[in-house]
Design brief:
The protein is mainly alpha-helical and 244 residues long. The chain has helices at residues 5-13, 20-40, 44-52, 58-66, 72-91, 102-106, 114-124, 132-151, 155-163, 169-178, 182-209, 225-234. Bound molecules: zinc ion (2 copies).
Length: 244
């Protein structure tokens, strides 16, 4: 009997709509960011990382703002640091001679070729570390898919996975990479092919019913198949309303 909590979380996620790995990733990232804003904004290590990563990536900034994970004060502290870092990188510090800053070079105080200046500006305004939300997302996906691929031949896990909506394509790619043998890979593909074929049929049905001769038939579960298919192809946030 497995005693890994991820195993049970995965079993539960398989009973819910959408890719179970996307769901667990999403939950883990939200928990992590929530904790970060409540507990770690003043942690010197976290603050240093956030300065180097220039805050969060687009996906996780949207999540923080939409889900109101970060309070106004925490966000102000973090982004005061981030903009301070960008300014320091662009302008240099007072300890450095004026001639060494990007700005001085740009103003022509000292000669420099345009490409060198562009490169220095790009470096100054680019993250030097990955987003903490992405790091949490990727480590969760790796952990969950490792458990899935290790346990996919167990009856309980295989039944749960077969009843789920299957993996999105990005997680299928990672799952294939983590498969330990041909049997595990074959089980994964068998389930996934069934899901793909079913969704493929639903899309054809949706297109068919859009013909004026059949429009009166009304739509069944295939009504949102296009949203589920796009989500399956791209992966990412699971929306409950997109799953029948
Ligand atoms: Zn996924
Ligand atoms: Zn991110």
């Amino acid at each position: 009997m497995p005693n890994n909590p991820t195993y049970f979380e995965l079993l539960k996620a398989c009973t819910q709509p959408g890719c179970p790995v996307c769901r667990l990733e999403q939950e883990a990232v939200e928990r992590y960011l929530d904790h970060l804003f409540y507990e770690s904004v003043n942690d010197p290590g976290v603050r240093a990382h956030l300065r180097n990563s220039l805050g969060f990536c687009q996906e996780h900034t949207r999540l923080i703002l939409n889900a109101r994970l970060g309070g106004a004060l925490g966000m102000s502290i973090i982004y005061h640091d981030v903009l301070g870092t960008v300014l320091k990188r662009l302008l240099g510090t007072k300890a450095l001679s004026d001639e060494s800053t990007i700005f001085s070079r740009l103003l022509g105080r000292i000669p420099a070729d345009l490409e060198t200046i562009r490169k220095r500006i790009r470096q100054a305004i680019s993250p030097h570390e990955p987003c903490l939300g992405c790091r949490q997302r990727d480590s969760t996906a790796y952990m969950v898919l490792s458990v899935l691929m290790e346990k996919i031949q167990d009856q309980e896990m295989l039944a749960a996975f077969a009843n789920s909506d299957g993996l999105c394509l990005p997680h299928l790619r990672l799952g294939c990479k983590l498969a330990q043998d041909e049997v595990a890979l074959a089980e994964l593909l068998k389930v996934e092919l069934e899901k793909l074929e079913k969704l493929h049929t639903e899309l054809a049905e949706f297109v068919r019913k859009n013909d004026y001769r059949y429009i009166k038939d009304g739509f069944g579960p295939e009504g949102n198949a296009w949203r589920r298919a796009a989500q399956l192809a791209a992966g990412g946030q699971v929306n409950k309303q997109d799953h029948a």
